[in-house]
Design brief:
The chain is an alpha/beta fold. It has a single domain, classed as Alpha-Beta Complex (Spore Coat Polysaccharide Biosynthesis Protein SpsA, Chain A), CATH 3.90.550.10. It has eleven helices and eight strands. The protein starts with a strand and ends with a helix.
């Protein structure tokens, strides 16, 4: 039996790029993949632009974790794939996901490539992929996917403003190690370029260290902002 897939995409003020992002998913939709966009309260035209390109567009303010949980609640697929608005899947990603989950029950993620001018972004992506493979912790940029039953079993994404991807990875890892697909998703380097590559690297290291030490996610989100 072929599993059905739902892609859940949380967005906020993504009018500048949402159409090409969703248009890239059209071949997957043609093969039966459901695409659900969950807007967090955009002040631009994100919702209007996304509507023709998605199976469902929800408006659910309150943060990315809540948006993704709302999208998962609406989704009909037996497999959930959470995709950032500035990330594009590799061709045939749906088939790769299904093959991975047929071979190993549970969850997984893709390797990532970060697009942008600074050469250091290639190094950052390589280190992210290696760290994730070693630790069993995935980031949202890596297009995390899982069986719906497992998503429900771990309680979905935690209701916190930062590190929701790290926390759900911990919960999932307690059940099984992730399938780490070497096919690369492409994500925008805008976060690193806007803050500075080295500044962003050091900031994220510090935040992860503080989270590992037990600091609350709300305090870390304030530091991130």
């Amino acid at each position: 039996m072929t599993l059905s897939i739902s892609i859940v995409m949380p967005v906020l003020n993504e009018a500048a790029g949402i159409v090409p992002t969703l248009a890239a998913l059209a071949p997957l939709r043609a093969r039966g993949v459901e695409v659900i966009v969950v807007d967090g309260g955009s002040s631009d035209d994100t919702v209007a632009l996304a509507t023709p390109w998605a199976d469902c567009v929800l408006v659910f303010p309150g943060g990315r974790a809540r948006q993704m949980n709302a999208g998962a609640a609406r989704a009909t697929g037996e497999v959930l794939l959470f995709l950032h608005a500035d990330t594009q899947l590799a061709a045939g990603a749906d088939e790769m996901v299904l093959a991975a989950l047929r071979a190993k029950t549970g969850w997984g993620r893709f390797d990532v490539r970060i697009d942008g001018a600074p050469w250091m972004l290639r190094v950052v992506a390589t280190l992210m992929n290696l760290r994730s493979r070693w630790s069993g912790i995935a980031t949202g940029d890596q297009a995390i996917f899982m069986r719906r039953a497992l998503f429900d079993a771990v309680g979905g994404f935690p209701d916190q403003p930062l590190m929701e991807d790290v926390e759900i990875s911990r919960r999932l890892r307690a059940v099984s190690r992730p399938v780490c697909l070497r096919a690369k998703v492409r994500t925008s380097g805008r976060r690193w370029e806007s803050r500075g590559v080295w500044s962003t690297i050091f900031l994220m290291w510090r935040l992860r260290w503080r989270y590992w030490r037990g600091e609350p996610a709300a305090a870390l989100a304030e530091a991130y902002r």
